[in-house]
Amino acid sequence: MKFIKFLFLSLSFMLSEPLLAQSVKDTTSLLEEVIIEGNRLNIFTTGNKIQRIDSATIQRFKSGNLGDLLTFNSHLFIKSYGIGNLASISSRGTNASQTAVLWNGFNVQSPTLGQADFSYFPVSFADDIEIQYGGAGALFGSGATGGVINFNSTPKFNNGLTFGASLNGGSFNSCQQSANVSLSQKNFVSVLKVFNYSTENNFPFYANGYKVRQVNADVKQKGLMSENFFRIKKDQQLNVRIWLQDNYREIPPSIASRSGNQPMLFVNETLESDFLRLSSEWKKSGKVASYFVRTAYFNDRMSYVDTLANMHAITRFHTSISEAESILRLGRKHLLNIGLHNTFNQATSNGYPDSPSQNRLALFGSYKFSFLNDHWRTVISLRQEMVRGKLIPLIPSAGVEGKLVKFLSARANVSRTYKVPTFNDLYWNPGGNKSLKPESGWSGEISLTASQFTKSRSRNSVMLTFFNSNIENCIMWLPAGGTWSAQNIQSVWSRGLESIITFNKEIRDFKFGLVVLYNYVVATNQKARMANDNIVGKQLIYVPVYSGQATVELVYKGFYVNYIQNYTGNRYYTTDNSKVVEAFQLGSIVAGKNFKMGSSFLNVNVRVNNLWNESYQVVLNQAMPMRYYQAGLSYVFNKSNKSIN
């Protein structure tokens, strides 16, 4: 019944006008003879579906984290353990370690766990967020099986002095403050961003028939990002970035452990983490050739404490990344990309007998050309990696895109994918298996987009994407000889459909926008783990078959109202699909006013989350808040260079 309500809401808006548009990036532009400044994601992902989160959406979620934003604005499923707690990702049926997460081109996935926690990415630290759906192993290496998330910042030269600050507060004693200052000259940009976030998370929920309050769930985060960009010459640029962050969270008890409405008065489990991320890039841009040299260093620490188990586990890892690449124009219709990449990881942990390390060296290249009067483009990519002195099988990919007719375009892509085992899979004691093979497979997709441009230059369109993915040698932990051990045992077949419909309409001072996303994902086990194992043909755990969302926005003279209705279908939490976490749908509404005062900009907004007061769980026995409220105030001031001088 709830799903029918969701469909009715979506369809009622869809039928109000002819075609709606999509927020997926159009990469069908010609290979014009202009200066080559883009990266591999922008230039050599022909045939892939790429979604760029628009600046208005980033602004609306600026007080939250990346997990919050992606939950309500993408085809991705975010497996959240609560406000400010662990948020992992599933893209097209893949698991959290099979989607690469890049910070300005550098992969920040943990080499120990193989994944990133999306609650650790404050949206206020990003200027540009992009999602590439589907395999991208040839371009970005290990872990880019289900897709790639890009968390970027972009400089604006000669923009003067800019200062911004925001304050947000709400239910459960939550408070978030952020500030940024930018000095932008003709040949130099310096940006400093800071944020602080805290919440008690003492929200009410139902447990075993009683209404109780969440306890032992405090979250505290604070961070700083410094970015400096130097224009050495007209065609050369150097940047240096620093990202520091501290995170503290109490791990609350599960719903199953709550008996009656008696409070739990002590904290059992806590997780503290901090990290330092440094990066630098030099680039030389030209019409015929562009060159890029970049390097990064990451230092991460995690400290887990369980007082009942008398456990204190500390994990540290260091990552060094170096990369050099060039993009060459071979005539008006041809581009060639060649690069060399090296990643070195080293970790220490209570669970490792020593301090394991791993070096990955890769040579990669792409060739892109246009044909049929520049209406179509295609790209072919190859990547060869060496891990621990052994060659990974060659990783190819190919994509094509272009216009079928004036209003209808198509794109298609096929790619081989792989993922090297994590340090925990290889070295954890007990159970680590140094003989593990990398996961490998193939993925492909075909997209059709029907577009309509209105007189006001807004784009209405419908996009349908059909995808398929097969992964072999998937790593699972299974019982073996009285303990658990990592093994290459699972085979996964994922296939499905994604659709995105967007529509924009302007009537005098009124602006109306609608985005509808729908996901149909069938991700099944294809191989038994052991005799009489009833998992073949069964849906993977915590992968909803059906999910979707509808976003409606109305803007009038600086006032705006944005409503999001999100539906998440049943998720199985047993591999034989005998038990489910029930489907749920959430409504969220935000209303605000933008004030323009000369060189200043002021925004005031209020938000109601879980508007319909739904009692739900994303993960079994992990409590989620019912209706709660937030209010925010943000201010931006800009003084042009002419005023400064």
Written account of the structure:
- A hairpin with a 5-residue loop joins strand 24 and strand 25.
- The termini are far apart.
- The chain has 645 residues and is mainly beta.
- The N terminus is likely disordered.
- The protein is globular.
- The strands form 5 sheets. The chain has a 22-stranded antiparallel β-barrel. Strands 1-6-7-4-5 form a 5-stranded mixed β-sheet. A two-stranded antiparallel ribbon has the order 2-3.
- It is built from 7 helices and 34 strands.
Primary descriptors:
22-stranded antiparallel beta barrel, disordered N terminus, 645 residues, 57% strand, 34 strands, mainly beta, globular, 7% helix, 7 helices
Structural class: mainly beta
Query: What portion of residues is helical?
Result: under 10%
Largest sheet: 22 strands, antiparallel, barrel
Mean pLDDT: 90
β-sheet strand percentage = over 45%
Q: Categorize the overall geometry.
A: globular
Round the Cα radius of gyration to an integer and report it. Answer: 24 Å
Q: What's the helix count?
A: 7
Write the layout of secondary structure elements.
Elements: H1 2-14, H2 40-43, E1 49-53, H3 55-60, H4 66-73, E2 77-80, E3 87-90, E4 99-103, E5 106-107, E6 128-133, H5 137-140, E7 147-152, E8 160-170, E9 174-184, E10 188-199, E11 204-207, E12 210-213, E13 219-233, E14 236-251, E15 269-284, E16 289-306, E17 311-329, E18 334-349, E19 357-371, E20 376-387, E21 390-391, E22 395-405, E23 408-419, H6 423-427, E24 439-453, E25 459-480, E26 483-507, E27 510-525, E28 546-556, E29 559-568, E30 571-572, E31 580-581, E32 584-597, E33 600-609, E34 628-639, H7 641-644
Parallel strand pairs: 4-7
Antiparallel strand pairs: 1-6, 2-3, 4-5, 6-7, 8-9, 8-34, 9-10, 10-13, 11-12, 13-14, 14-15, 15-16, 16-17, 17-18, 18-19, 19-20, 20-21, 20-22, 22-23, 23-24, 24-25, 25-26, 26-27, 27-28, 28-29, 29-32, 30-31, 32-33, 33-34
